[in-house]
Amino acid sequence: MTPAGVLAAGAAGGDLFVAQNVFFGVIALVMIVSAIRCVTTRNVVHAALWLVLVLAGAAAQFILLGSEFVAVTQVLVYIGAIIVLFLFGIMLTKASMGDDDSVAGEKRLMAGLVAVLLAVVMGIALIDSYSDTRVVIDEPQRFAAVSDAIFSQYIVAFEAVSVLLLAALIGAIVVARKE
Amino acid sequence: MILNQFLLLAAILFCIGVYGVLARRNGIMVLMSVEIILNSVNINLVAFGAFRDHVAGEVFALFVIAVAAAEVGIGLAIVLLIYRNRRSIDLTEADLLKG
């Protein structure tokens, strides 16, 4: 490690407990616990409510990263719309309202193995690649910059997404309606 | 803040989502796990956007949110259709194409 690297590491250790990092740790803990509860709980409605905590935590992380527009969109679209959609789906398929005790043991074991293996591989790769890379957020992202980018550079993708949403809307109606 | 803390959080959430997709048999639970996966990707995108100080990360996070909304709409419609036809949303029973 070069002397500059040692200095940077020392500085990183020095401001490890700034408020941002403390908030990050708390929110990350809440998110991980909620996500684990969401995928392991037997009650589907409880799983949807745990998912709310995960999504809200993600919104908080977006605010920590200085992109408040994505955070607001996250709250509006995910917590406001998608969770309601999930709850309606749970209500309409009332067979799943109660316990879902059909999580087979062997399947669970293999899935856990795959997940842990994937976590180890990705963790090693990330620590190897970005171990001392720092994010410096001097000012929150302005709405104007994001909207300028969407409506100039990414206008084709934006129009494609709007067509996709329309197609998905019509498709969902066609698929789900009664004959 | 270190970039890696966000990336590692996203990686852990991604793995939890993968576990959910693989282990659960309830169709709605699988869709919820996919939402966790898409959220972890969004955290990655925004983190890299903040790291590079570029708006592309946020723009694509917004696109991912829109695509996720479309995906959930269609997915729930399909689950509803499976339920209506088979009175169950157990995905291991939805194996008509299995030959």
Short account of what is shown:
The complex is a heterodimer of chains A (about 180) and B (about 100). Chain A has about 180 residues and is mainly alpha-helical.
Structure description:
The complex is a heterodimer of chains A (179) and B (99). Chain A has seven helices and no strands. Helices cover 77% and strands 0% of the residues of chain A. Chain A is mainly alpha-helical and 179 residues long. Chain A folds into two domains: 3-105, Up-down Bundle (Four Helix Bundle (Hemerythrin (Met), subunit A)), CATH 1.20.120.1200; 142-179. The longest helix of chain B is centred in the last third of the chain and has 31 residues, at 56-86. Chain B is elongated and about 50 Å long.
List keywords for this structure.
A: mainly alpha; 7 helices; disordered N terminus; B: 0% strand; elongated
Give the termini distance of chain B in whole angstroms.
53 Å
Please, what is the average pLDDT of chain B? 90
Any idea of the CATH class of chain B? Mainly Alpha
CATH fold label of chain B: Helix Hairpins
How would you state the average pLDDT of chain A, rounded?
A: 84
Q: Terminal Cα separation of chain A, in Å?
A: 69 Å
The CATH topology of the largest domain in chain A is Four Helix Bundle (Hemerythrin (Met), subunit A)
Kindly state the number of beta strands of chain A. Answer: 0
Mind telling me the CATH superfamily name of the largest domain in chain A? NADH-ubiquinone/plastoquinone oxidoreductase chain 6, subunit NuoJ
Determine the structural class of chain A based on helices, strands and strand pairing: mainly alpha
Interface with most residues: A-B, 87 and 70 residues
Instruction: Please write the string of helix (H) and strand (E) elements of chain B.
Output: HHH
Instruction: Count the domains of chain B.
Output: 1
Give me the oligomer status: heterodimer
| Helix content, binned percent of chain B | over 70%
